[in-house]
Amino acid sequence: MAILEYRVEDGCAIVTWDQADRSMNVVNAAALEALDAAVVRAVADADVKGIVLTSGKKGSFVAGADLAELEKLGAGPFDAADLAKRTGEVLAQLRRMETCGKPVVAALNGLALGGGYEIALACHRRIVVDARGAKVGLPEATMGLMPGAGGTVRLPRLIGIANALGVILEGKQLAPDEALKKGLVDEVVPEGELLAAAKRWILGGGSAVQPWDQKGAKVPGGGIDSTGGLQTLMGSVAMVHANTFGNYPHAKAILSAVYEGMRLPVERAARVETRYFLSLLAGPVAKAMLRTLFFGMQNASKGTRRPKDVPPFEVRKLGILGAGLMGAGVAFVAAKAGVDVVLLDRDEAGAEKGRQYAVDRLQRDLAKGRTTQEKVDATLARIRPTASYDDLAGCDVVVEAVFENREVKAAVTKRAEAVLTERAIFGSNTSGLPITGLAEASVRPANFVGMHFFSPVERMQLVEVIRGRETSDETLAKTYDFVRRIGKTAIVVNDARSFYTSRVFGTYITEGAELLRSGVAPALIENAGRISGMPMPPLALSDEVGLDLMRHAGEQAKIDLGERFEPSAMGDAVELLVGRLGRHGRKNGKGFYDYRPDGGKSLWPGLGEHFPVGAAQPDAREIVQRYLLAQCLETARCIEEGVVTSPEDCDVGAILGWGFAAYTGGPCSYMDTLGIARVVEICDGLAARLGKRFAPPALLRDMARDGRTFYAS
Ligand code: NAI
Fold it and tell me: How confident is the model over 117-148, as pLDDT tens digits?
C-alpha cells in the first residue's frame, strides 16, 4: 500500500505522506519505515539539498498515533519489552532524520497533532498554513497519555521548560498564530505557499543542525538545574497535585519525564520518556480515558447509533420557543454554526432580550480578538427575534424552551405545530417532564422528541436526546443530524423520570447531604468531593443548582411518584435551609456556603448547629468511593431499566453532561476497571451499613456471576 510519494523539485526532495487507505495520515511502523527510506534516499542523492516533508491529505498533515492500535494494546496485557523495542526503533529513526546532515522542513498543511507534531519536532523547521482547522500540539494528556515519540524531549529544548510543560500538560491544540507566538512553529504562510516557503528556506541555506545539537546549546529560559528551571518544576508539581489529587498518572509521568530527560542526552532522554509512556499504557486510566474521551466521543459525535436508512437531514432554519436562558443559548450556538434562527418569546421585547445574549457574547469574543466584526455581523443577522408564530413557517426543527410547566408547553407546542410541515421535528428542552406526556399535546407525536441541552449551552457539549413512546426512528435520526449540525454531541435515552443525566447526577448531591446528616464534617464532605475528581464538591454544587429549585423538584417528585416517593437527606436539608432559614444557594448569597461580595465563599458556620459533627469521622477515601459508586449504581439501574442502552452513551453522557470524574472513563468504565464482582462486594458492605441506596441491582449481580463486563459483553 502506498504511503509516501517521493519526488525531487528545485533541488529539494518533496516527501508527501499520503496513506492510501485512510482519510488522515497516522503514525505507525510502516509509515515511519517509509519515511526512513525516503530520508536515506534524499541523503544519498547529491542533487538534493534538503527535504520537505508534507502530506497529501487535505487539511491535515498527520493526525497522530494510530489510536486504535494503542487502544488495542491498552485493552489487555501487552509485551512491554517488545513495545519498548519498537518505540526505540521509531525514536532512532527520528534521530537519524534530524542528524542526517541535510535540512528537513515539516510543511504542515493542517492538523499536526501528537505523533504527527512529534515528527515535525524532529525536523529542523516547521512551517504551517494559515488555514481554518489547522492545529498543532500534543493532545495526549487529554486522553490520560503523554507524548511517546520524543515530544517531552524536544519541545522543552525548543521553547523552554515552562512553555513546553504548559503545552504538554494541558494537551493544548494551538491555532497557527498561537503556535507561532509560542514557538511551536517557525513560520505561518497563506494556503498555497507552503511548498514554496519550505523550498525557499532550504535553498536559502537552512541549518541541518537542531538547536539542541549545536555546540554550547542552551535551553531557552534556562536548563533544568537553573533557578528558573527548578522553580518551574516545583510550581508545576504543586499545581498539578492541587488540580488532580493524583488521579491522573499522566501528569506526574510528564513532569518526571521532563525533569529526568532534561538532564540526559537526547537519545537517553527519549528512552526515559518511553518507560513513562509504557507505564501509562499499562495502567487503567489511559485505557478508560482513551475509550471514552476519544473513541466514545468520536462515535457519539459521528452518530454511530443514529438509525440507519434515514437520509441525511439538512437543517437550515431553526425555531426556538422561549428566549430565556436556554433558548437564547441554543439560538447563539445554532447561529454561530450557520443555521438561521427564529427566536420566539411572549413579546418582541422578550425575544430581543434573548438575541441580546448572543450580542453580548460575540462582543466579548470580539474584544478578546477571538472573532471578527464580519463574523459577528453574520451571526447576528441569522437570529430573528419575534413574537409571531407565523415566522416559524419553513423551520426544519423547533426547540421548545419555555417555562417548565406542562400547560405552557402544551399551548406553545400546538401553536407552533400549526405552521410546521410534516417534515419538521419538534424537540422539548424540558429538564424532567416525561416526553411521552408532553407529546400528547402534539398532532405529530412521532416527530416529537426530548432535546435536553445543558447550561451554559455554548460551553456544554452534550445534548441528551429523549425518545418518547411515539418518537419515530426518522425523528431520532433527524435529531442526531441537527445536534451534529450545531456542533454538539448526542446521547439517546428512553423516556423515564429525570431521564439519565439528572437522575444519576442527583445521587452525588444526595450523598453529600447523607454525609452531612450522619455527622460528617462539611469540610471533609467537600474536600472528598474535590479529591474524587468531580468538578465541584456536592454542597457547593447544590448551592449552584439552587436550593429552592431543588426543593421545587422534590415537591414535583412527591406528586409524580405518590407512594413510591422516598424522602432523602437532601430533601430534609433543603427543606430546612430554604423553608426555615431562607437560604437559596448562590443566588441570594446564602446556602450551604456564605457568599461574599468579593466573589469568595466559605462554608456557613451555622451548619454545625443544624447538623452536629460526630466524634468519629470516616476516611476521605471511603467518601470518594461512596460518591463514585452511588453514581455507578444509579447508572447500572438506568441500564437495567432500559433508560440507557449502551455503556458508551452512559460514559460519554456522564463526562460531558455533569463532569463525572474523567480519569475513570465514566461510570461503566469505572465499574469495569474495579471489576463487577468487586463493585458488588463493596456495595453490599456499604448497603449493610448505610441502607439500600447502595444495594447492587440484579444486573450487576448477574454480571458478576457470569464474569461479564460492560464493555466486553
Ligand atoms: P427561563 O425562565 O430563563 O426562560 C423561559 C422563557 O420562556 C422566558 O423568556 C419566557 O418569557 C418564555 N416563555 C414562557 N412562556 C412562553 C410562551 N407561552 N410563549 C413564548 N415564550 C414563553 O427558563 P430556562 O432556564 O431557559 O428554561 C427553559 C426550559 O429549559 C425549561 O423547561 C427548563 O426546565 C429547561 N432547562 C433548563 C436548564 C437550566 O439550566 N436553566 C437546563 C436544561 C433544561
Answer: 999 999 999 999 999 889 999 999 999 999 99
Closest protein CA for atom 17 of ligand 1: 346
Q: Which of 348, 388, 389, 402 to mutate to test the pocket of ligand 1 (most atoms within 8 A of CB)?
A: 402
Q: Which of 459, 493, 527 is a domain's end point?
A: 493
Q: How far apart are CA 592 and CA 541, in angstroms?
A: 10
Whether residue 530 sits in one domain with residue 477: no
Catalytic residue IDs: 452
Instruction: Supply the pLDDT for residue 74.
Output: 66
Going by alpha carbons, the residue nearest to atom 10 of ligand 1 is 322
- Domain contains 301: no
pLDDT digits (tens, 9 = 90+) for 147-184: 999 999 999 999 999 999 999 999 989 999 999 999 99
From 333, 355, 403, 414, give the residue whose CB has the most ligand 1 atoms within 8 Å, as the site to mutate.
403
Cell numbers 508534507 correspond to 54
Q: Residue 582's domain spans which residues?
A: 501-620
Shared domain for 23 and 164, answered yes or no, is yes
Phi, psi (degrees; rounded to nearest 5) at 314: -90, 130
Residue after which a domain boundary falls, among 620, 652, 687: 620
Digit-coded pLDDT (tens) for 324-341: 999 999 999 999 999 999
The finding on whether 445 has its CB within 6 A of some atom of ligand 1 is no
| Domain presence at residue 657 | no
